[in-house]
Design brief:
By secondary structure, the chain is mainly beta. The protein is built from 1 helix and 6 strands, in the order αββββββ. The protein has one domain: Sandwich (Immunoglobulin-like). β5 and β6 form a beta hairpin. The radius of gyration is 19 Å and the shape is globular. The two termini are about 30 Å apart.
């Protein structure tokens, strides 16, 4: 955030804006038309194992699905390469993400 302070002309972002950190991973997708069936989203590890599965919104438009980087069992996933698989309207789309270790966590 940029705040134009008329007295000193500087940015005051950190002093004026504080918010919760965003979710760990966000998958955004667009449906031109409403899905005729369930929109299924899978987070898959490098070995092909499904670590988490979501049902996404079925309406037409832009959607965001948040993933807290936890498995179905609630454990935090290990750093590595993961793939999102999105199945909607008879099509499958794939996107990859790399999860890295938090340098502030020991």
């Amino acid at each position: 955030m940029w705040d134009e302070d008329k007295r000193s002309w500087h940015g005051g972002g950190d002093d004026l804006w504080r918010a919760k950190n965003p979710p760990d991973a966000i998958l955004a997708y667009y449906l031109k038309t409403a899905a005729t069936d369930v929109v299924k989203i899978q987070a898959v590890d490098a070995n092909g194992k499904i670590v988490r599965e979501f049902d996404g919104p079925r309406t037409a438009g832009i959607h965001r699905v948040l993933w807290d980087l936890k498995s179905t069992g609630g454990e935090r996933i290990a750093p590595g390469s993961y793939t999102f698989r999105l199945a909607a309207n008879g099509r499958i789309s794939v996107a990859s993400i790399d999860v890295t270790a938090d340098p502030n966590r020991k």
